[in-house]
Amino acid sequence: MSTLPNCPQCKSEFTYEDNGMYICPECAHEWSTTAPAESAEAARVIKDANGNVLQDGDSVTVIKDLKVKGSSLVVKVGTKVKNIRLVDGDHDIDCKIDGIGAMSLKSEFVRKA
Q: What sequence ranges are listed for the domain Protein YjdM C-terminal (predicted)?
């Protein structure tokens, strides 16, 4: 069993050590062997499609028609979403959209309002 830590970016277990650095072969992320892994996650910054930093409670606008998985509903371009909550994961915004309900969005499909 390997005692090396999982990649803090993609959570891959196939990391290896080289010249005092941990390296992930799946996402090419490199980090120091002396730095704690939690500091990389704590410093994670979520940005919108324009590069603006998002925070909990912000309002955002959808920039692309998004199909709602499992139904025939569509979130239209220009839909304003208020009071977002940032979470970890692929879909990093949790929100409630009028007429649709609670859902998760990717930050790359929104811009700060």
A: 46-113
Rounded Cα distance between 94 and 89, Å, is 11
Cβ burial 84-111 (10 Å sphere, 16+ → b, else e): bebeeeeebbebebeeeeebebebebbb
* 1-38 topology per CATH: N-terminal domain of TfIIb (2.20.25)
Same fold? 1-38, 59-112: no
What pLDDT, in 10s, does the model give residues 19-72?
Answer: 888 889 898 888 887 755 555 455 679 999 999 999 999 999 999 999 999 999
Angle at 40 between CA 39 and CA 44, to 5 degrees: 110
- The tokens of 67 are what? 């199909």
Q: Which helix (H) or strand (E) element contains residue 96?
A: strand 93-97
Q: Are 100 and 73 in contact (CB under 8 A)?
A: yes
Question: So where are the chain's domains?
Answer: 1-38, 59-112
Report, at the CATH architecture level, how domain 59-112 is classified. Answer: Roll (2.30)
